[in-house]
Design goal:
Layout (H helix, E strand, L loop, with lengths): L1 H15 L2 H7 L4 E3 L11 H6 L6 E11 L15 H12 L14 H11 L12 H6 L7 E2 L3 E6 L3 E6 L11 E12 L4 E12 L11 H20 L4
Antiparallel strand pairs: 1-2, 2-7, 3-4, 4-5, 5-6, 6-7
Length: 237
């Protein structure tokens, strides 16, 4: 969790110039309660990797964008899932070069940190590392991202990655989680509803408390808002 704290203090709040600037930039991203019956809790990845049903830290961040502001080519064939692919690519690929003045560039800081620490020509060469790879991938099941995420589920409306440790560790992990990038097109309302859904838990052993203390959960939510803005920036005109 140290990288989240460092990221926020340097690339986010520092880049925004003030907490007020950050709040304004992310004002349209809202957190809503996650239902205890959410499908992510009955997914194969969750059941398999949280065998002791340990407590979770979880949240759902929602952002609604008018369909008129979304790139038309992403809406042409809804059943093919092009919109959710572009949304996902925006999370990991960050902002375009001509948007470099915007706060923190999303995942860019963390990507560089992980690249310096874990990228090599033997065990992680097959993973996505460069901004170009991250912006152009279709994120099919099995895709591994910067030695920290792996796509475990994909539908035309949602892409789910496993997080918490290296995807090279396939068994139950001490620290684990699932992160869902989803979109629902609501033509009757004229909007696309984007969501970032997170569930974190301790996989090994039995835990009595949720895995994140309150202050780390707060920082995680700020980081999620940054991801949301860079992600929707990749699908908007």
């Amino acid at each position: 969790m140290g990288i989240i704290r460092t990221f926020l203090s340097t690339a986010v709040l520092g880049g925004a110039g003030s907490a007020a600037g950050f709040a304004f930039w992310t004002r349209n991203a809202k957190f809503v309660p996650m239902s205890s019956t959410d499908a992510i809790f009955t997914s194969p990845a969750y059941i398999r990797n949280n065998p002791n049903k340990n407590p979770t830290t979880n949240d759902v961040c929602v952002r609604r964008v008018p369909l008129s502001k979304i790139k038309p080519q992403l809406l042409e064939k809804e059943g093919e899932g092009k919109l959710v692919e572009a949304f996902c690519a925006g999370v990991w690929g960050g902002l375009d070069v001509d948007q470099a003045d915007v706060v923190g560039k999303g995942y860019a800081y963390q990507r560089r940190f992980l690249e310096k620490k874990y990228k090599n020509d033997s065990t992680t060469a097959h993973q996505l590392w460069s901004p170009t790879e991250l912006k152009t991938s279709t994120y099919d099941v099995g895709t591994q991202i910067t030695d920290h995420f792996e796509v475990v589920s994909k539908t035309p409306e949602a892409i789910v990655v496993r997080c918490g440790d290296s995807p090279l560790k396939q068994g139950v992990r001490d620290s684990d989680g699932l992160f869902e990038m989803g979109v629902q097109i609501k033509r009757d309302e004229g909007v696309a509803e984007f969501r970032l859904k997170s569930v974190f838990y301790k996989g090994l052993g039995k835990a009595d408390a949720k895995p994140m203390p309150d202050h780390i959960e707060f920082l995680h939510r700020l980081y999620t808002k940054v991801w949301m803005e860079t992600a929707v920036g990749n699908v908007m005109l």
